[in-house]
Specification:
By secondary structure, the chain is an all-alpha fold. It has one helix and no strands.
Amino acid sequence: QLMKKSAITIESTIKMYLQKKKYLEMKKSAITIESTIKMYLQKKKYLEMKKSAITIESTIRMSLQKKKYQ
């Protein structure tokens, strides 16, 4: 009876350890995926802003050049 109880305790502890290990791996993967997506979205937003700034800057320069020659 004592051996059976000990075996159940050991088995339970091992299962708990393996489940926790699996959970932590999944959590780490989820964080990596989330981080990668956030980085991609931030980069996309930055590039849009950069493109807009270049457009504004070139429009202003063009306007100034037009005024210069009129």
